[in-house]
Design brief:
four-stranded parallel sheet; 4 strands; globular; alpha/beta; about 15% strand; Rossmann fold
Length: about 120
């Protein structure tokens, strides 16, 4: 099974961006792949507001990226952190796929309609 590195916005509206990242992970899973989303994992341990912790989290994410099969970039904007992940994937020769929010909604709608618990329901 392929391992997909999920890149999506985190800083700013952290609550909303966390939910979006979870939806992105569900999208990857529903496509039949495993996912890794460092911005959902590392803030559970590291302090996002501490610059040293933030840098450590970004560095560990890039280290994990080297073990992923692809990088999928979710959403309609690319943050600085996401851009650094994109740059790292390019340096490593890891394929990059861009997934717009609209594409997520369109592809997940059939799944969401079958599963009322799904956060992608419209």
């Amino acid at each position: 099974m392929k391992l997909i590195y999920v890149a999506s916005p985190y800083a700013g509206d952290i609550e909303r961006n966390t939910e979006f990242a979870k939806d992105a992970c569900r999208f990857v899973m529903n496509e039949g792949y495993a996912f890794f989303a460092p911005h959902l994992l590392y803030p559970q341990v590291l302090n996002e507001h501490d610059s040293d912790d933030r840098r450590l989290g970004l560095d560990m994410g890039k280290e994990a990226l080297a073990h992923c099969d692809e990088l999928w970039v979710f959403g309609d904007t690319v943050s600085r952190g996401m851009q650094s992940e994109i740059d790292a994937a390019r340096e490593l020769g890891i394929p990059i796929k861009y997934v717009a929010a609209q594409e997520m909604a369109e592809r997940e709608r059939p799944f969401a309609e079958r599963h009322p618990f799904c956060s992608m329901r419209m």
